[in-house]
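Ops channel
N.P.: pipeline sanity check, posting one input/output pair.
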């Protein structure tokens, strides 16, 4: 996919998510994919088909867009109206990060606190270098 196509998809995803304000107005990943691409979801290929959309949502978040995710039967993606609506998404990301760091510590055969000290040292060295 060329950059222009990706930029176009990103703009479309951003616009669509602007239409889904609040955690009570979610849109499913499948619905985003179908709406943006005009394609159809193939059940056993859904994850691969929607990979680009997940990547674009990640980019939009990194750009500062307040995109939340809500789990459950009425869940999906939405644009948060306030920080409170983002709280469950932030907790989800925090939990994933902590789980990954615990696995990293175990693979390095060091304690979790030792790993955090290593990261603290790296961050302080980056601040000094900057």
């Amino acid at each position: 996919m060329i950059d222009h196509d990706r930029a176009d998809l990103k703009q479309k995803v951003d616009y669509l998510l602007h239409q889904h304000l609040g955690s009570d107005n979610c849109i499913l990943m499948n619905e985003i994919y179908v709406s943006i691409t005009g394609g159809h979801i193939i059940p056993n290929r859904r994850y691969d088909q929607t990979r680009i959309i997940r990547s674009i949502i990640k980019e939009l978040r990194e750009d500062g867009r307040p995109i939340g995710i809500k789990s459950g039967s009425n869940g999906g993606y939405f644009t948060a109206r306030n920080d409170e609506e983002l709280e469950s998404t932030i907790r989800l990301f925090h939990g994933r990060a902590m789980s990954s760091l615990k696995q990293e510590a175990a693979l390095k055969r060091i304690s979790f606190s030792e790993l955090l000290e290593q990261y603290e040292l790296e961050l302080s060295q980056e601040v000094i270098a900057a």
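N.P.: looks fine end to end. The chain is about 65% helix and 5% strand.
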